[in-house]
Amino acid sequence: MTTRHTVAPKGQGGRGAYRTIGEAIRAASPGDLVVIAPGTWTENLVLDRAVVLTAEHGRGSVVIAPPPGEAPAVTVAGPDCALHNITVWGSDAGLPAVSVSPGAGLVLEECSVEGGRVQAKGPEDEEGGTTALVLRRCRLEGARLAGLHLAGSVRARVEDTAVTGVDGTGVVLSGTASLDAVRLRLERTTGSGVRLRGRSRLRLTDSVLAGSGRAGLLLEDATEATAGESRIETPGAAGVHLTGSARAELTDCKIRGAAASGLVVQETARLSASGCSVADAGANGLLVTGAGEAELADCRIDRSTFSAVHLAGTAVGRLADCRVRGGAEHGVHATGEARVELTDCGIVDVAMTGVSILERAVATLTGCRVAGSAAGIGIGSPTGSTVADSTVTGTKEIGVQVAKGAAASLAGIRISGAGAAGLVVDEGAEATVTGGWVENCAGSGAVVWTGARPEMTGLRIDRPGKNGVFLAEGAGGTFTGLDVSRAGFPALHVAAGADPVFRHCRVRDCAEALGTDEGAKPVLEDCTADGAPLTFGAPAAAAANGTSGTAPAAKAAKTGGDDTEEPEEENLEDLLGELHELVGLDRVKQDVGSLVKLMQTVRRREEAGLPAPPLSRHLVFAGNPGTGKTTVARLYGRLLKALGLLRRGHLIEVDRTALVGEYVGHTGPKTTAAFNRALGGVLFIDEAYSLAPALAGNDFGTEAVATLVKLMEDHRDDVVVIAAGYPGDMHRFIGSNPGLASRFGRTLLFEDYESAELVSIVEFQAGQHRYELTPTARTELLGLFEGMPRGEGFGNGRSARQIFQEMTERQAQRVAELSAPTSEELISLEAQDLPHPAAR
Q: How far apart are CA 287 and CA 298, in angstroms?
């Protein structure tokens, strides 16, 4: 029979009431109830028998506080003890406020523990018994080192309990302790939220771990944890971190805003997650290193700061029906000897490569989707990855790349809307392509680089912006059942020394069927172009417009000019006169004239056997569009030729597209080829600032700049480079590489044309084409230019030339209505021929 013992201050509680809680406990028998009156009771309690302590007037009315410097306030040494509705204060935040001894048992219900931890210790092993602890609807606050510490053979259950404001770890389990936590809310800890060590076990259900200073959930050694329908929010390190041989299983959990990676698996740890989501991680969404393994099903990883999934070492990652969205780096990145298996996964809008496989890692992709990333799938490992029945859409750069020395097997893959080449097999790579489709890519459908010899069977290529298949120098391979349609360049392009074999291939509706460089050795077996046999070395009947079945590479990409003919000898004075006849550009004319005089002096010193002063002939032309930069650049080359400082003086005009490649390893050769065409003359780089974008990242433009700097040094006396672009952007270009500032020592500023100068340009154009402006037309044309907005779309001299063209078109329509126009009427441009300002 349960006996009730009352504890109350003197004068309260009636006859038989105890004046201290300790007296009541000593008088109680196992199973008795101790009812405590409101107040703060300064005692060190020892519960050495099965008693229940409860507050007479409910939660918050009774406080148990130990004497100063003494701890703990409550020591439990017996089984089946309980505290109801009681607040316990600790005397030192770093010491236990409530301590449960080995073999004892305690239930805390509707209690608060402040300024000290709850600690339960069990025997070293379960043969010595267990310690039992239950917390229901409790609050643990203000401890140091740990809020709840379970060590040894302890079995604990926590329900609807908050652990908060801990200067250290919220909950610590060690030894063989186990904890079943339901609706635990843990927040504001300077260390990890929950930490498991030894062989401890945790089951977490419907709980929240928020605002930890380190990992939300940390598993070490041989620990195990399961978590379901729980949230880990804004941890100061990883959301869930496994090391040692730990094991964790997560179901329907959410990890948000981790300062480091959302999920971390290290050493030989194993993680299983289903229906979970990781968002806004400060590093990776999932990081697996060492020999760790992670298996995710139906999970989401959104907006990672690093790669969404990163595997290194000998790690293994298996993802099924998972989604990756957003992120500043790769979607999935595997290095070392890691192995990744992706099944029915989607990767969308990552800033770098959707799936990147490097070093000796291995990937298996089945039924996956990559969309909107910079590049789609990049395989740089020689150990043999496979991609089957997967799609890559809307990439800004290459769709799928098998990088230098790598090996891959692609089956049933679909690549659509790539911003560069669809499929690239790089130098020395091994690739087998079976079936699949490449469509609507801006570059070539498939690119095979030097030394690569892929086997492609049944691949369909539709509407590539350039070639259907491009084979670089020395490339080869076997292409069977290839279908190329609607290519903008020759469907099949074969460079010098390349010896591919095309069997049973079909070309349809292409600009040209076959383009070859000198020394190309393609073999065509049973191939057709628009239904007619396609052969090498003879005109292709497939070319319905009568073009040849072979074509030089120049047909695939136009150069800036004809660099095969030697320019005529020109007189320096005549060229200077031509310069000064240009409309406007007074400052530029003066600068160029000064340069010519300086170079004349340099030339004379060289002829006299004197050392020439240091001189950089390379220039920056800074100005808005249409201000005559190209015209002056062409004249500058001819002037240097006349001075004997350049062999030919011709101009090769290029822009970013002529220098920057579509895939790794393409930019250097492409830049070198453009530069070599300019040897002996001028390389004019229009919009040069585009080679150094404000947010460069992994942009290939930086490689083009580095290549240019080296070539300018290697050929310093045989070429002049002029970099042109908007004034404000050219500073960024010059600053993008330390070698540029020393080589571009002079900038010529091309100012916008005044309105009167634009009128002069129109008059010059008219004189060249035997037209004349009437005085009224000249006056109104000046007004038109003066009223024209000088915004971003204004074209300076280009606008003047466009207006002249419009005037001639309007004049032609007007004169066509005259029955017998006179010679004067045929050449006169009148005010009514001017375009209306509103139409511009």
A: 18
**pLDDT tier, 768 (very low <50, low <70, confident <90, very high otherwise):** confident
Rg over CA atoms, the chain: 40
Strand partners, 136: 109, 159
Residues 6+ apart with CB under 8 A from 285: 261, 262, 263, 278, 301, 302, 304, 307, 308, 309, 324, 327
Distance CA 792, CA 442 (A): 27
Separation of alpha carbons 678 and 153, rounded Å: 80
Contact 368, 345 (CB under 8 A): yes
Name the one residue in this structure whose structure tokens are 């799936």. 355
DSSP annotation of 680 reads T
Facing residues of 439 across strands? Answer: 416, 462
Categorize the per-residue pLDDT at 558 as very low, low, confident or very high, splitting at 50, 70 and 90.
very low
CB atoms within 10 A of CB 316: 20
**Distance between CA atoms of 310 and 297, rounded to whole angstroms?**
17
Among the residue ranges 173-187, 501-515, 655-669, the one predicted with the least confidence is 655-669
Residue type, 397: E
Torsion-angle region of 742 (φ positive above 0: left; ψ -120 to 50: alpha; else: beta): alpha
d(CA 135, CA 132): 10
Please measure the distance between the N-terminal and C-terminal CA atoms of the chain and give it in whole angstroms.
Answer: 102
pLDDT of residue 541: 32
Report the distance separating Cα 519 and Cα 629, nearest Å. 39
Task: Report residue 227 as tokens.
Answer: 């978590």
Structure tokens at 705: 């700049």
* DSSP codes, 340-364: EEEES-EEES-SSEEEEE-TT-EEE
Q: Is 591 helix (H, G, I), strand (E, B) or coil?
A: helix
Which pair of tokens denotes residue 644? 């004997």
> Whole-prediction pTM value?
0.68
Output the 3-class SS for 608-661.
CCCCCCCCCCCEEEEECCCCCHHHHHHHHHHHHHHCCCCCCCCEEEECHHHHCC
Full DSSP string of 435-476: S-EEES-SS-SEEE-TT---EEES-EEE--SS-SEEE-TT--
Beta pairing partners, 502: 479, 524
What is the C-alpha separation between 395 and 730, in angstroms, rounded?
28
Give the Å distances, CA to CA, from 573 to 377, 642, 681.
58, 9, 20
What is the CA angle 827-829-834, rounded to 5?
155
Q: Is 544 left (phi over 0), alpha (psi -120 to 50) or beta?
A: alpha
Cα–Cα distance measured from residue 231 to residue 211, given in angstroms and rounded to the nearest whole number: 11
Paired tokens of 691:
């080679």
**Is the backbone of residue 626 left (phi > 0), alpha (psi -120 to 50) or beta?**
left
Residue 495: both structure tokens together: 């460079």
* pLDDT confidence of residue 555: 32
> What is the Cα–Cα distance from 76 to 44, expressed in whole angstroms?
11
Question: Could you give the CA distance from residue 580 to residue 588 in angstroms, rounded to a whole number?
Answer: 10
Secondary structure class of 669 (helix, strand, coil): helix
DSSP string, 78-144: SSSEEEESEEEE-SSTTSEEEEE-TT-EEEEES-EEESSEEEEE--SSGGG--EEEEEES-EEES-E
Q: How confident is the model at residue 771 (pLDDT cuts 50, 70, 90)?
A: confident
Of 244, 261, 262, nearest to 253 (Cα)? 262
pLDDT of amino acid 551: 34
The model's confidence at residue 792, banded by pLDDT at 50, 70 and 90, is low
Contact 335, 362 (CB under 8 A): no
- Token pair, residue 361, equals 């890692």
Residue among 115, 118, 153 nearest 132 (CA): 153
